Amino acid sequence: MPRATLLLVNADAAMRERVVQVLATIPRVRLQDCTDGELERSLEAQRPEVVLIAHPATAALRERIPARLPVAVISPDATHDNEIAAMRAGVDAHFGLPDMAAPLAQWLRDQLPGPGTRARIPEMVAHSERMRSLDAFAERIAQTAATVFITGESGVGKEVLARQIHARSARAQGPFEAINCAALPEAMLEALLFGHAKGAFTGAIEARPGKFVQADGGTLLLDEVTEIPVHLQPKLLRVLQEREVEPLGGRRTRPVDVRVIATSNRDLREAVAEGVLREDLYYRLSVFPVRIPPLRERPEDIPSLARALLTRASQGRLVELAPEAESRLMGHDWPGNARELANVMERAATLAGERSDGRVTAESIWLDADMLEHGEGVSAAGAPSVPAASDDDIPSAPLLEQTLQTQESRVILNVLREAGGRRKEAAERLGISPRTLRYKLARLRESGIHVPRTGVV
User: Fold this and answer.
1) Is the dihedral of CA 418, 424, 429, 433 positive or negative?
2) In this predicted model, what pLDDT tens digit does every residue of 230-254 receive, in sequence order?
């Protein structure tokens, strides 16, 4: 199994040593350091799975880090002010240096790839008629070189389908590159997409190729393409039309042979009508439009997908899905779709491992929405809940972190409702940036929490 990479930003020698001690308890993790000035270059070169920022004063670095990466802040102490600063910066967790060893180790185990970490979905289950038709259509699309626009709600498997199309195509031996257009600042997005010349901007000490060049001969996935700023869209359109790319600050173009697959969870016609997506770019990308239906529209796929995910999360152990557990799964509407189901089945696999018969029962199905709604744990029928602590009890670090995340989620959703779904107004009320709010709402959707989609940032 390849080693995972942890990027540590702005740490002094003492803090680095503490992190090294924590990593000694976690197998196959490689530690890399950088300063805030080296952040973008290190992210591109090291491709880390998780990022630690070494002081709350620099928590604002979160906006320079792709949203898909989990980020935590380490502070000299766990004061309330530091917690608030970390929350406003949009980081996923905050740890005080004196007592961070156990909670940080557990958090890292939850984030890093490897045994016992978050379940991946390497293939789509095509049991329903709709998914079998989609699978057959994807097979035909793969034999062409045309662009594909995949739409669907968060968690339905848009990137999974994109990778399948690539794997079935004549480009399968070529590179598959992906970039999340919603997770990067505008200036960084342009440089990563198209590359940049030496001296193109402060810190550009050498020329670097962009994703189009890196994907030459293969496939480039533009995830959440509707988040590309409008002023950059003509440059993207030119690459698609002319099959050549001009790096930022450069004077020469370079030909590229790239198949582009774009994704979005937005209504595309609405995005065009709002001026978020250029109409000419929409037509250029939508040679083959594909919509992946959410799980609630194809419930017959839930049992087979759940079993596939359960088998993967069980790491080869024989685990049976009891009928009452299947009924509980079928009774949920899965707002987080396959990604939410993956999380639920990972928890179920862990709980089943504690039973002598290894069965997944209804009590093993802990739904994310229930955990958020009830705060202390799952209290839906048949599932256990964590009892409320008395005033004299001191909660464990993982429980405290879960409680804080639950409270933060409640605050965000309440403020969003009070703002009538207007993201910009909600961000102002919360004292965070619109990008940070967008990141946090995406995390909530991935956890299976319904987030109103009205309003714009």
Assistant:
1) positive
2) 999 999 999 999 999 998 888 888 9
Question: CA-to-CA distance for 420 and 360, rounded, in angstroms?
Answer: 40
106 or 17, higher pLDDT: 17
d(CA 457, CA 454): 10
- CA quadruple 87, 91, 92, 96: dihedral positive or negative? negative
Class of 296-365 per CATH? mainly alpha
Q: What are phi and psi of 209, to 5 degrees?
A: -75, 150
At residue 66, φ and ψ (nearest 5 deg) are: -50, 140
Q: Where are the domains of the chain?
A: 4-111, 130-293, 296-365
- Give me 26's structure tokens: 């976690």
CATH of 4-111, one of 3.40.800.10, 3.40.50.2300, 3.40.50.300, 3.40.50.1000: 3.40.50.2300
Residue 133: exposed, middle, or buried by beta-carbon count in 10 A (0-12, 13-18, 19+)? Answer: exposed
Burial of 202 (0-12, 13-18, 19+ CB in 10 A): exposed
pLDDT digits (tens, 9 = 90+) for 127-143: 788 998 998 899 999 99
Is residue 17 exposed (0-12), middle (13-18) or buried (19+ Cβ within 10 Å)?
A: exposed
User: Is a pLDDT exceeding 60 seen at residue 147?
Assistant: yes
Helices (H), 97-183: 101-111, 129-142, 158-168
Q: Averaged over 28-53, what is the pLDDT? A: 88
Q: Is 261 helix (H, G, I), strand (E, B) or coil?
A: strand
Q: Please give the CATH architecture assigned to the domain spanning 130-293.
A: 3-Layer(aba) Sandwich (3.40)
pTM score over 0.70: no
The answer to whether the 4-111 and 130-293 domains have the same CATH topology is yes
The answer for residues whose C-beta is within 8 angstroms of residue 242's C-beta and 6 or more apart is 253
Q: What percent of the chain has pLDDT over 70?
A: 77
The total number of residues shown for the chain amounts to 457
Instruction: Write down the number of H helices and E strands in the chain.
Output: 18, 14
Tokens 């905050």 map to which residue?
A: 94
